[in-house]
């Protein structure tokens, strides 16, 4: 599992006379997750993953399917390759793409851990609201 502190905010207290505090994002870094989430943040790249889930495809056929130029499709495929989600192989003049062997287990684990965190926070909020309603009806 990834570092549980990833993505937390830290507060930097400046001298009182300055009159403000500064929140900044702590960078714990998880390059594989960063690359995967960046690659999957684009709808076209998610579509490419879906398409390759049905079978291997050439960059030309993917470009046609997504109505893109070859150059544009190559750039999308390169992003997916850097993340390890897609593997390409050139045979003659045709570059064929297929899904990479690496699954999305680490990403799913990160999402599940944070889903549970949010769920617990919302349950706690529901309890507070219920208590407030109960106190309001007792008056």
From TrEMBL:
Pfam families: HTH_20. GO terms for molecular function: DNA-binding transcription factor activity. Residues 25-119 form the HTH arsR-type domain. InterPro entries: ArsR-like_HTH, HTH_ArsR_DNA-bd_dom, WH-like_DNA-bd_sf, WH_DNA-bd_sf. This is Putative transcriptional regulator. Signal peptide: none annotated. It comes from Rhizobium leguminosarum bv. trifolii WSM2297.
């Amino acid at each position: 599992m990834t570092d549980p502190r990833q993505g937390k905010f830290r507060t930097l207290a400046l001298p009182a006379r300055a009159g403000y505090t500064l929140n900044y994002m702590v960078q714990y870094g998880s390059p594989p997750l960063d690359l995967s989430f960046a690659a999957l943040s684009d709808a076209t790249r998610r579509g490419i993953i879906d398409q390759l889930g049905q079978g291997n495809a050439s960059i030309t056929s993917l470009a046609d399917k997504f109505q893109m130029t070859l150059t544009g499709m190559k750039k999308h495929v390169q992003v997916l390759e850097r993340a390890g989600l897609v593997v390409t192989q050139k045979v003659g003049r045709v570059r064929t793409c297929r899904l990479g062997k690496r699954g999305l287990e680490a990403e799913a684990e990160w999402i599940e851990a944070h889903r549970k965190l949010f769920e617990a926070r919302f349950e706690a909020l529901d309890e507070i609201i219920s208590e407030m309603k109960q106190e309001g009806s007792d008056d």
